[in-house]
Amino acid sequence: MRRFWGFVVKEFLHIFRDYRTLLILFGIPAVQLILFGFVITNEIKDARFAVLDLSMDETTRQLTEKIVSSGYFQLDRNLHTYDEIDEAFCEGDIRLVVVFEPDFARRLEKEKVAHVQLIGDASDPNSASILVSYASGILNNYLLSMNSEAIPLQIHPETRMMYNQELKGVFMFVPGLMAMLLMLISALMTSLSITREKELGTMELLLASPLKPLQIVLGKVFPYVFLAFIDACIIILLGWSVFGVPIRGSVGLLLFESFLFISMALSLGILISCITNSQQLAMMISLVALMLPTILLSGFIFPIENMPKILQWFCHIMPPKYFITIIKSIMLMGNGLYFIWKETLILFGFTLFFILLSIKKFKIRLTSS
Amino acid sequence: MNNAVEVLNLTKTYGDVHALKEISFSVTKGELFGFIGPDGAGKTTLFRILATLILPDGGSALIEENDIVKDYRKIRQLIGYMPGRFSLYQDLSVEENLRFFATIFGTTIEENYDLVKEIYSQIEPFKTRKAGQLSGGMKQKLALSCALIHKPDVLLLDEPTTGVDAVSRQEFWEMLKRLKEQGITIVVSTPYMDEASLCDQVALIQDGAIMQISTPAKVIDSYPLGLYSVSTSDNYQLLLDLKQLPQVCSAFAYGQAAHLSYRKGEMTKEEVKLYLSKKGHQDVTITPIKPTIEDCFMELMQTSGQADK
Question: pLDDT truncated to tens, each residue of chain A (369 aa)?
């Protein structure tokens, strides 16, 4: 055991001596979160929109005004036929079209149901979804104010996202980013650390010593668990304080799950470094083989349900997918362990699998090269 | 037999390259055993096999009666290995490196300080300096301290003096001698022929095969030829001319002079002198000399080269 701690102490010395590593460890998460966060939140101000008012009555005029006065939207033009919608999108910077059905006010009063269609420009899907949800929020507010009268009135906003029929919400970003950054830092850092020893030749001495593979592998993982955990806390704290991402569930559970995910990513990083011989290759694998799937196949940006079946299967073997589900569940829905035990178990399984495989793949001798 | 190292028919190939061809030798306890040979002779491969870092393709090797394949765990505790390339942590200080290696071998600096004291005390004034910033000679001393700190029975040193200045090289060999006195078996390799005479036994190795194993004195005694040291004003032309003499076995540059070997009794000093002055050489000096290890090596290389053809 003393040998193990000696090894851990050495690893910490390496990390603290290397300012660049430290900068990557703590600088990148904060900078990226803030960049990503502000790019999203700043986007919706004075978004241009067009109105196709087929009813032209008092209510539709009031609704249009409501939308304009919200501060999020700016009326660009009035349209007169459906055909003009496509044209308007193509021509200008219009990002949303609001369509009121004919006889809107009369229907609302008599049938208690009236239809409004929101058409978003989903070539920029995230902002389109935000715009649509803002617009429907405004319409719903109006509805509520009407409801103060005796008769319950109803407006059914019917949204349709052009060019991309289904979209996901905004809060997706913080959990997704957290998964991505933790994966990047943990897997990349550890995969570099073993291959560095191979490149510098120090692995030759470690191998010729009585240290066991388990001691070397765990000794490498140990310090990074600490550091990545601090990172997770930074991301959660920034998400909560700067962007108002709520933590509705238990903080303890959230930290525990982050800890589990970090361990998983670290053991994956170790596995990569056990099967590669150069830092460059390890870095390529971590970046290309891990980062891209994490971003693309975890449901972080693109909804899994829309993917072809084969890719969906791939998604199921992407650990970040489960982690994102878990954090969303805890942070946004406030669920407890009862709802996410399955995902937790899967992450745990991944961790165990990667660690065992690393120890097995860890070469007790030099590779003949 | 109670040898520290016992190697029998050890073979290793990398694809088509025969790095080691059925090598056999044994090192008795407390001996300073040297492998002398040029780069690419197979020295590093041999040391890595002995250090249990690579597996041989054939043959066997025992270190303190432990098999290098089966009992590699035991061996790793027994040996102190110093690779040819400087392999300590450059971003750790001198003391941190030593402490780390003491810890992973389950000991402490204090426990075995006596053993490394003499070597380590020379670099101790710089103990807070990072290993990467040490000079070549100091790096060597630190690496030796790290290989010694767990009190190994057998010390494997792969080209410890390569890239080190002449003074440090001499110091290093003196340190090895003193370690030997403490009963540690030392196996060392070097490309420098002049270091051979400092070993108890030397093995001359070339192209993965051992050409001769003996004490340095016996190696020199077994030199079968006569030898002259020849120098003139034009050493380059001298070599070309000498090689044309039919009695000459070899002629090669040795420092400022040329070493000329010939079959004993077939050539006299005067004959060479006459021949050279005919060729127009001036300031010719010829002295008969005793062979050095390098002469022996060149001779062995030539005969084994002819045998191959």
Answer: 788 888 888 888 888 888 887 887 788 777 877 777 666 554 566 788 888 888 888 888 888 888 888 777 888 888 888 888 888 888 767 888 888 888 888 887 788 778 888 888 877 777 787 788 888 888 877 777 766 554 555 565 555 544 333 333 446 677 777 888 888 778 888 888 888 888 888 888 888 888 888 888 888 888 888 888 888 888 888 877 877 777 788 888 888 988 899 888 888 888 888 888 888 888 888 877 777 777 777 776 667 777 788 888 887 888 888 888 888 888 777 777 777 888 899 999 998 998 888 888 877 777 644
Chain segment B17-48, per-residue pLDDT in tens:
888 989 999 999 989 999 998 888 889 999 99
Interface probe, candidates B49, B79, B92, B104, chain A, greatest A C-beta count within 10 A = B104
Tell me the residue type at B162.
T
In chain A, residues with a C-beta closer than 8 Å to the C-beta of B139 are none
* B275 within some domain: yes
Select the residue from B52, B87, B90, B148 to test the A interface by mutation, using most A Cβ atoms within 10 A: B87
B143 and B263 inside one domain: no
Q: Which of A14, A203, A205, A366 to mutate to test the interface with B (most CBs of B within 10 A)?
A: A205
Find where tokens 């998604």 sit.
Answer: A315
CATH number, domain of B243, equals 3.30.70.100
ipTM confidence score? 0.79
Residues of B with CB under 8 A from a CB of A: 14, 48, 51-55, 72-73, 76-77, 79, 81, 83, 85-92, 96, 99-101, 103-106, 146
Every domain of chain A and the residues it spans: 2-39+171-361, 44-162
The answer to whether residues B151 and B38 belong to one domain is yes
Judge whether B272 and B286 are in contact, CB under 8 Å: yes
Range of the domain at B229: 224-290
Confidence category of residue B307, pLDDT binned at 50, 70, 90: low
What CATH number did the domain enclosing B13 receive?
A: 3.40.50.300
Chain B residues with CB under 8 Å of A210 CB are 73, 76-77, 104-106
Partner-chain contact B87 A364, CB within 8 Å: no
Residues from chain B contacting residue A200 (CB–CB below 8 Å)? 87, 89-90
Domain boundary pick from B152, B182, B216: B216
Domain at A44-162, CATH homologous superfamily = abc type-2 transporter like domain (3.40.1710.10)
**Residues recorded for chain A:** 369
The pLDDT, as a whole number, for residue A158 is 54
Task: Tell me which chain A residues have a C-beta less than 8 angstroms from the C-beta of B106.
Answer: 2-3, 210
Q: Measured between CB atoms, does A214 come within 8 Å of chain B?
A: no
- Closest residue by Cα to residue B206 from B194, B195, B197, B193: B193
Q: Which residues of B touch A17 (CB under 8 A)?
A: 91-92
B204-255 tens-digit pLDDT: 898 888 888 888 888 888 888 888 888 887 777 888 888 888 777 888 888 7
Mark whether B210 and B238 lie in a shared domain.
no
- End residue of a domain, out of B216, B240, B271: B216
Q: Are residues B116 and B265 in the same domain?
A: no
**Residue scoring higher pLDDT (A55 or B67):** B67
Same domain, residue pair B194 and B271: no
Closest CA to B5 of B87, B83, B74, B66: B66
Domain co-membership, B236 together with B100: no
Looking at residue B31, its amino acid is: E
- Provide the domain count of chain B: 2
Using DSSP's 3-state secondary structure scheme, residue B87 falls into coil
Q: In this complex, do A205 and B88 lie within 8 Å of one another by their Cβ atoms?
A: yes
DSSP string, B30-72: T-EEEEE--TTSSHHHHHHHHTTSS--SEEEEEETTEETTTTH
* Residue B199, C-beta contacts closer than 8 angstroms, at least 6 positions apart: B32, B33, B34, B188, B216
State whether B265 and B125 are in the same domain. no
Does residue B298 lie in a domain region? no
B89 and B234 both lie in a single domain: no
Would you tell me which residues 175-204 of chain A have a C-beta closer than 8 angstroms to some C-beta of chain B? Answer: 200-202, 204
Contacts of residue B20, defined as CB under 8 A and 6 or more positions apart, other chains included, come to: B10, B11, B12, B42, B45, B46, B49, B56, B208
